């Protein structure tokens, strides 16, 4: 692939992995019969970027043994994707898959864990890859060079799973080019007390029509936040697979909610809650 046509995401992966010793990677990941990987992507402005990706690979005895702690024996990789019209969170998530597949020994069974339902469902063939075909082509090329089985698992984001949380941190650092001070300032800016609380006109309209259903500023329970995360992820998966169509402001709302819901202390407004419920109900009627 020429430099002119090479995507920013694939270039980011190649540049990051060039800093690894192939012998050290092989030595670490071949110490056990199998490998698990935790991947993540982050986009500061979705779409537009900048973005980052991460992949953590761990040698294991068996793929079905859950890892509750971060083991010392692991390979960590992450990279930066510069701002561009094409830079999105989903492309960062796919870049993380490409990195994991590039690092993992092709003759060892590999299981990739991700908190992106879109990424998993397209990777497993549940949904067609109608968007980002260039990256999915690379994905299939890497998969076809494997001789051992490949499987996927979904992990709920920001639910305390140690390797998922570490992958999230590395992807965020990648987006900020390893400027930890800028990354931590960005994290603080995502907290409710750091935001102005301003909403779009569409959100405000939804809020006015639905105040009887929920009060602005009422902190939802953990289960309510989990449900909202699942609704957003499912809608984004359906959107990216082409199974539903949304207006530009609805797309942007979902992208913004996906970012905000990454933080357990996010307090959604009544307008945000009702708009999300309305989009989910509309999607169910469409399918």
UniProtKB/TrEMBL annotation:
Give GO MF terms, alphabetically: metal ion binding; nucleic acid binding; RNA-DNA hybrid ribonuclease activity
Q: Where is the RNase H type-1 domain?
A: 31-176
Mark out the compositionally biased spans (Basic and acidic residues). 202-218
Q: Which UniProt keywords apply?
A: Endonuclease, Hydrolase, Metal-binding, Nuclease
Q: State its Enzyme Commission number(s).
A: 3.1.26.4
A Pfam family of the record is: RNase_H
Q: Does the keyword Metal-binding apply?
A: yes
Q: Where in this protein does the record put region Disordered?
A: 189-220
Catalytic reactions on record:
Endonucleolytic cleavage to 5'-phosphomonoester
Instruction: Name the domain of life this protein comes from.
Output: Bacteria
Supply one GO BP term. Answer: DNA replication, removal of RNA primer
What family does the database annotate? Belongs to the RNase H family.
What PANTHER family does the database record attribute to this sequence? RIBONUCLEASE H1
The protein's name in its UniProt record:
ribonuclease H
């Amino acid at each position: 692939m020429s430099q002119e046509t090479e995507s920013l995401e694939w270039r980011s992966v190649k540049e990051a992995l060039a800093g690894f010793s192939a012998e050290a990677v092989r030595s670490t990941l071949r110490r056990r019969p199998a490998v698990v990987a935790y991947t993540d992507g982050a986009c500061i402005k979705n779409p537009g970027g900048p973005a980052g990706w991460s992949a953590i690979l761990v040698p294991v005895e068996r793929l079905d043994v859950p890892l509750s702690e971060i083991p010392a024996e692991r390979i960590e990789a992450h990279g930066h994707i510069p701002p561009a019209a094409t830079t999105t969170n989903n492309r960062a998530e796919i870049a993380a898959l490409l990195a994991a597949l590039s690092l993992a020994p092709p003759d060892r069974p590999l299981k990739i864990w991700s908190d992106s339902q879109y990424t998993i469902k397209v990777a497993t063939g549940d949904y067609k890859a109608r968007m980002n075909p260039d990256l999915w082509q690379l994905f299939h090329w890497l998969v076809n060079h494997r001789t051992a089985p490949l499987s996927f698992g979904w992990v709920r984001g920001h639910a305390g799973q140690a390797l998922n949380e570490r992958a999230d941190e590395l992807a965020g650092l990648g987006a900020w080019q390893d400027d930890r001070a800028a990354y931590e300032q960005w994290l603080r800016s995502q907290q409710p007390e750091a935001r102005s609380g301003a909403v779009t006109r569409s959100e405000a309209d939804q809020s006015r029509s639905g105040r009887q259903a929920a009060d602005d500023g009422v902190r939802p329970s953990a289960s309510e936040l989990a449900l909202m995360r699942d609704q957003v992820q499912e809608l984004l998966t359906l959107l990216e697979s082409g199974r539903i169509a949304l207006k530009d402001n609805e797309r942007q709302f979902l992208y913004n909610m996906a970012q905000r819901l990454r933080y357990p202390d996010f307090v959604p407004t009544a307008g945000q809650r009702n708009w999300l419920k309305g989009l989910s109900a509309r999607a169910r009627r469409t399918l």
